[in-house]
Fold these 2 entries.
Entry 1:
Amino acid sequence: MNTKTITIIVLAAQTLLGPPSRAVETYDVRDSNGVPFMRARIFGPGDGPSCCGGGDKPNHSLRIVPQWEIDHSLAAIRHWAEIIKVMPGQSPAIVNIGGIRGNTAASIIQASPDGGTKVEAALKGQDPGELDYGAHGMVAIGEMGFSSDAYIPSQLPMTPKIGLAPVMIHEFAHQLGIASTIIYGSEATPFSPRAISPYFAESINAWTDHLHDDNGNQAKPGQAIYCTVCANPRADDVFDLRRDQGYFAGKNVSEVLAGAMPGIPVRVMTEDGRQDVPFVSHSELKNSLMSHQGYRNYTSLMEAEIAAMQDIGYSIDRRNFFGYSIYGNGQNLVNDNPFFARNANGTAYLPNTYNTATLGLGLHVYGSGNTVIQRADLLSQGAGGAASASMAKAIGY
Ligand SMILES: [Zn+2]
């Protein structure tokens, strides 16, 4: 396909300051089976273009990426490498990382021949297509007042500042396929405040294929999208988001949500009423790391979001990272689900054996007002593991 899906691209007219040239630094990360997972290529100014930039202009790194930013980025890659089992053949996925200015971070996604992301294809053993600037995707790190302290794996933020590792976990999730394949019409760019005429690409990716509109109807290739800021002509068969109640649904997500909601909420508009472009490319579960909400207090994706990664085709032993989650509200529950280490095949728990996943979590209570009696053991001893967590009650707005 000839379109590029670009997520939160940040453009700046810039003059290179011309610091001394350095070689691009390369770091390799393997998955838990030892299969090559991802190669990170770190660009500084003077290392040449690392990506596509805006329009046809190459995008250069605007500043040197300090070692602590590299370390946090690698922590995020290792986080995903622990979760996803590579389907061998096309890996590692190669990602260029550069430094930019401004209060932001960005993931620039390249589409593979079948419409998914190139990074996703490389990890699923599918043809990712050609490299762009030597990579399958690009992540740009801005200046968001990040803490430069060493990354400490934890279920809760460990610093009052913004943690770079969680931000990079978010940006890499876009590279991994959490992004819609929407074309925004010829009259305006996705970043223009003017009315837009969005529609799904003819070749939609797995994330988009799982999206449902306000009326519960599944997305179809080429379909026009209606929303409060969309200006599409009348059509019989549209993806209707005028009430902005779209959601991602799939077998694994349904299993996790257990009827608490029809799927993971996705949105066209932000909380404060602005266009949230690219549309329906984030998970708007409350305060989620994968959301675009102003306040996000999770440090990694929650179980429903990892289930979405399974639904889009990744091989993940979800029970190695989550014992059980409760998304409903006001329930009286007895939880007999344990949390232990997994067997070698990842098919069952090993009773009375501690789970060592870095961010393993025995029980996550997302919903509010529940009374839960925990009747099974939750044995977690990963570096940032926990027996249970209830973010909704503990923090909230
Ligand atoms: Zn994002």
Entry 2:
Amino acid sequence: MNYFKEKIKYHMPHGVLSLYRKLRYKDIPLSKNIKTRLGCKELENYASFNYSNGNFLFGFCCPRPGQVNTPKVIFETNDPKQMAQLFKTGRDKLISTLDSKNHPCHGCNKISNVSDTALKPLTTIQISLPLSCNMLCFYCHNSIPKRTNAQIEEKKKLDSFDYISLFKEFEKLGMIDNKTKFNWASGEITILKQRHAFFDFAKTHNVHIFCNGLLFSKDLADWFSTEHQIGALNVSLDCGTAKTFERMKGMDKFEDVKNNLIKYGSNRVKEKEYELKYIFCEGYNDNKKDILGFIEIAKQANVTKVMMDRNFHDIQKPLSEHMKEMCKYFCETASRFGIRNIIRQQFSDKDIKYFSSYTQNK
Ligand code: SF4
Ligand code: SF4
């Protein structure tokens, strides 16, 4: 029965599928006979592990400009066992009190009626520790302009934390299972002392690594050549010339990164996706020379796809005509080189539709 339901869902025309999603996830009773409660898909499926002001914490959705407060569980301990227990209690409480006016999610339009079943294991754990990064991108999600002494001290704490024990405690409490996906997102895994243990863990879990490509890491290359588990490596290169690289990332290391990308590509097994990202930043990389240089590197590194994205700080602004022209050129160039191109959701639905008409994904 479920098989047929899934079949019907995935073969629906787009308009019908979108209506199905609206009905499924909006604030309507699922059925008179099914007991419902308030819920949120992000709160129940996703958790982002961060570090701020001396404390580790989990946030439950990705904060975007204009969004209400992201609910969090903040830890005053670094003990993995206690942290896992506190996380479980904190998340259960946040879910069971969603109807309260003082709740951090109050007013969010992602709250809907869901069937009142037991909580399932998390589908995604995101790890975002941008203090431990060796680059200085001007557009960094967490706006790191330069390294301060306090940040260097904090980096030591991130280096000594036992991430794997924390995930094992989560497993024991049933909050993650073998389907849970781990995204090592902002923060540079290749410079963290715990990377050996993490890449060992990654050989048996579904892991998506986001790194900046500045260093060639043997741990990362070994994991990328391990067939046993699916996973992905994503690098934000964002340009195709040394000059733009230096302006965007605060260092003259374009050639090193380019060579590392090609070396990582030569280690890849088919179980792993290899993604190269281009974050469009007005006045920096919105030109044909950078786009062409980038696509040529993507080809040499044998990536499985490129991704077009927008500067996080600009997403409230509509795209200028010039930027639209350059994004279109990016889509056409990727198609010409036979490379799959994913248009990320930082673009508006209208822009995605427009650029998709210039994208040929085989
Ligand atoms: S703020 Fe909104 S999206 Fe985030 S966890 Fe709460 S209800 Fe979900
Ligand atoms: S590589 Fe990522 S985490 Fe590091 S500074 Fe750049 S955007 Fe920030």
